[in-house]
Design a protein that fits this description.
With about 850 residues, the protein is mostly helical. Among the domains are: about 100 residues, Serine Threonine Protein Phosphatase 5, Tetratricopeptide repeat (Alpha Horseshoe); about 150 residues, 2-Layer Sandwich (Heat Shock Protein 90). Helices cover about 80% and strands about 5% of the residues. It has a 5-stranded mixed β-sheet. Strands 1-3 form a two-stranded antiparallel ribbon. It is elongated. The relative contact order is 0.03.
């Protein structure tokens, strides 16, 4: 039992020693680190001067010089572990690269500065740096990241923002929400700004915020709410006696009433805007605003049927523009007047103003307005019975509409659309680049963390060595105690034996010396005295042993109390860690639920989108069928019409057929996705089906000088498929091969077999397919970057439908192609043995 207690005490003592050793090692590591951060005054001044020079170069827009100086100060600060110099150098480098639009490099330096500030617990500068990172993401076009950093600054409890900084930050957040199309959150943020502005009584700031709120409502089509805020702006402008801004407010309110179809109210505010603009018009300097007001008034009068006042307003505007405006502006007003005169039957004045507009537009690049003017002139001549002149004007309209410049304008619009797509791709690439930068920073942090763990392991090894030495010392001490106890036990045993010997001797003496009583009495007294002495010595020895046991007990109790206190401290620390882990677990669960909810909403939106497309496409079929029927009737009853009219009718008929085909394809896609496709699977001879398909397209190929070669290397060509859908798959792929082949080329159609499958191949020597197009080749509404060589139509649905049909019939379809080397579309079905 005593040996077991000794082991427990020794274990507790070793734990206490280990904790003390860890504390000593931590203090040693901290002292060593602090000692390594000390730099001399001359070093500090030299680095500060370099940073000051870099700041000066940055202020003078000499960004390359600023980068060079900041790199020098960064290198020296890093070598001396000078934290302040390190942070300032990193921030200068970030600002310089940002000014040069080198956003990736700027982000890298900002993140390094952020990590250093967090390490130093400099929360004020950390908040400023996070704000700058948010601004960088905002300028870079990565609004999601910008919003995260702006919100982190706004919710930082350890830093109190000044009111001006808070307003600036809130404005940034509101603008970012607008970029993300989160208008409700943008409005909520602007309302917070408006409350602060009103408390401060800053009228200009109030007006500015009200304008932003009203603008969002206007974009959302909530014109009543937009009106409410614009009325507030109008009152504030009147209070400030700002005539120009009052005119602007009246004009804005007029447009909002027009959007609400409240034309009398719109007219009232347009007229007020005109009065204010006329008050501030000096030497004709404000003529543009006056002309704009007159046009707005004329348009409203025209919409209300008050043609007399409408003509009056447009005529006033025309008189001003003829003196100060450009030819195009004058032509616009002539067209307004011509349109009104045409509506009222005043063909003479309508013709006069239209001719003036045409004359003014000659030599300008405004082709669309010229085309509209020629079309109106044709209508005027037709109304007045001048059919030859009407035909001439209509031909001019057709020539202009189909002119090269007109097409160039359309191409410019297409180019703008492409730029939007490119911007979207660039944004995605920026997000990927940012993620890479973040990962690189995490790797650097992991490296630092691993170094620290290595140091901790070394400390633990040293601690283990000390622990082993302590255990050895304790073992030696225990052995010494055992030896002392053994020696004491032997001494007691020797005393006991001596007592027994003494008793035996006494008995022997009594037997031998009975005859000599005096001698015996004397001897007995002497023995008794000796016995009392020995007993007294024994008692003294026992008392000394008891004192030692009490001393050991006191030390043991003290040691147990210390160990219990340490265990209590460890338990409290563990409880805190458990609570922190539970909080993190709860946050992760909340984020998971949020993501699941968003996924459900996206699925619902996708289903609603498919339903809407299906409904719209289905509703279009009926009017298209009616148009086709009417065109058939016109063809039957219009034999006496001119060839030109007949050509127009044929073009309308072709367009109607293309639109019907497009609607049918959209419905087919929706049917496939909703799994309502009705298949009639039977044994079909693919060789016969391919020959029929080739026969359908020989005329189309012949027009482009294309020869179709067929190679059928099969003995048995029967497969379990739907004949109609398979035929449509073959027709689509052969049609694409012809569309994308140059003139006078060759197209190959092959049919081959393996043990289990039949393979049909459609090979052309056209433009081929780029790597980017290959990624989404079978996607819905995806158009290739390559275009049909003879201007044929493409809806972007064909290959998507092909893939859906083939997979519905348990087949496979894929493409093998290289850009500039043609394409090979391959379809495989299981063979009927």
């Amino acid at each position: 039992m005593n040996h077991y207690s000794e082991n427990i005490n020794l274990t507790k003592l070793s734990k206490l020693n280990r904790m003390l050793l860890m504390l000593i090692a931590s203090i040693f590591f901290l002292v060593t680190t602090l000692h390594g951060q000390q730099i001399t005054t001359s070093d500090s001044l030299r680095i500060s001067r370099a940073i000051e020079n870099a700041h000066s170069a940055l202020a003078k827009y000499d960004y390359n010089k600023a980068i060079g100086l900041a790199n020098i100060s960064l290198s020296e600060s890093d070598s001396l572990n000078f934290s302040s110099g390190l942070i300032n150098s990193l921030l200068i480098l970030a600002e310089s690269h940002k000014a040069l639009s080198e956003y990736s490099s700027a982000l890298n330096y900002y993140l390094q500065a952020q990590a250093e500030l967090e390490k130093n617990k400099n929360y004020k500068e950390l908040a400023k740096t996070n704000y700058k990172i948010g601004q960088l993401f905002f300028e870079w076009g990565v609004s999601e990241k910008a919003l995260a950093y702006f919100n982190s600054v706004l919710t930082e409890d350890r830093v109190s923002l000044k009111e001006a900084d808070q307003i600036d930050l809130l404005n940034r957040i509101a603008e970012t929400y607008l970029k993300l199309d989160e208008t409700d959150k943008s409005q909520e943020t602007y309302q917070k700004i408006l409350t602060i502005n009103k408390n401060d009584g800053e009228t200009d700031q109030i007006i500015n915020t009200l304008r932003k709120i009203a603008s969002i409502y206007n974009q959302q089509g909530q014109y009543e709410n937009a009106l409410r805020y614009n009325f507030e702006i109008l009152e504030l402008n009147k209070q400030q006696r700002d005539t120009l801004q009052t005119a602007v407010s009246c004009n804005t309110i007029g447009f909002l009433y027009k959007s609400l179809d409240k034309l009398p109210e719109a007219l009232n505010y347009f007229e007020q805007a005109l009065e204010y603009n006329q008050q501030i018009n000096k030497n004709g300097s404000n003529y543009n605003s006056i002309v704009s007001n007159l046009i707005n008034i004329g348009v409203i009068d025209q919409s209300m049927g008050d043609y007399k006042n409408s003509i009056k307003s447009f005529s006033k505007a025309l008189n001003i523009v003829e003196k100060n405006g450009s030819k195009v502006e004058t032509a616009v007003l002539n067209n307004y007047l011509a349109s009104i005169y045409l509506s009222t039957g005043n063909y003479s004045d309508a013709r006069k103003h239209t001719l003036q507009a045409i004359d003014l537009l000659k030599g300008t690049n405004n082709i669309r307005m010229m085309a509209a003017s020629q079309k109106r002139l044709s209508e005027i001549y037709e109304k007045t019975g001048s059919y030859d002149l009407a035909l001439d004007s209509y031909k001019q309209y057709s020539i202009i509409k189909d002119s090269l410049l007109y097409r160039e304008q359309l191409n410019q619009e297409k180019e703008q659309y492409k730029q939007i797509l490119v911007a979207t791709v660039e944004k995605e690439s920026k997000l990927e680049l940012i993620d890479q930068e973040m990962k690189a920073l995490e790797l650097r942090n992991e490296k630092v963390k691993s170094e620290r763990e290595k140091q901790e392991i070394e400390l633990q090894l040293k601690e283990q060595e000390l622990k082993n030495i302590s255990l050895q010392n304790a073992q030696l001490e225990r052995e010494r105690q055992v030896q002392r106890l053994t020696l004491l036990k032997e001494q007691i045993e020797a005393q006991r034996r001596n007592q027994e010997i003494t008793v035996l001797e006494q008995k022997r003496d009594l037997q031998d010396l009975q005859l000599k009583q005096n001698e015996i009495l004397r001897t007995e007294k002497q023995k008794e005295i000796e016995l009392q002495k020995s007993q007294l010595e024994l008692q003294e020895s026992q008392l000394e042993s008891s004192k030692l046991q009490k001393q050991y007990l006191k030390w043991t109790v003290g040691l147990v109390v210390v160990i219990l206190l340490l265990m209590l401290a460890g338990f409290i620390t563990k409880q805190k860690d458990n609570r922190a882990l539970q909080t993190q677990y709860d946050k992760i669960n909340e984020q998971k639920e949020s993501i699941e909810k968003i996924n459900e909403e996206l699925l619902e939106l996708n289903e609603e989108k498919n339903n809407l497309i299906g409904i719209v496409a289905h509703d279009l079929k009926s009017p298209l069928n009616q148009i086709s029927g009417i065109l058939d009737i016109i063809k039957l009853t219009s034999k006496d019409q001119t060839s030109e009219h007949q050509e127009y009718i044929d073009k309308i008929s072709d367009s109607t057929k293309r639109l019907k085909n497009m609607v049918t394809k959209i419905l087919d896609v929706n049917a496939i996705e909703s799994k309502t496709l009705n298949l009639n699977v039977e044994e079909i001879n693919l060789k016969v089906l391919l020959e029929e398909t080739i026969g359908h397209f020989e005329e189309m190929a012949k027009k482009k000088g294309i020869v179709i070669h067929k190679h059928f290397e099969v003995a048995l060509s029967t497969a379990q498929v739907d004949a109609g859908y398979t035929s449509e798959v073959f027709e689509n792929l052969l049609s694409n091969s012809i569309k994308y082949s140059p003139l006078d080329e060759e197209v190959y159609v092959k049919l081959s077999e393996s043990k289990k499958t039949l393979r049909a191949e459609f090979i052309d020597h056209g433009q081929g397919i780029s790597k980017e197009d290959m990624k989404n080749l079978f996607g819905r509404y995806h158009k290739l970057s390559a275009r049909p060589t003879a201007g044929e139509d493409s809806t972007g649905l064909g290959l998507s439908i092909v893939k859906k049909y083939v997979e519905a019939m348990n087949g496979k379809v894929w493409c093998e192609s290289e850009e500039g080397r043609g394409s090979n579309f391959i379809v495989e079905f299981k063979k009927v043995s």
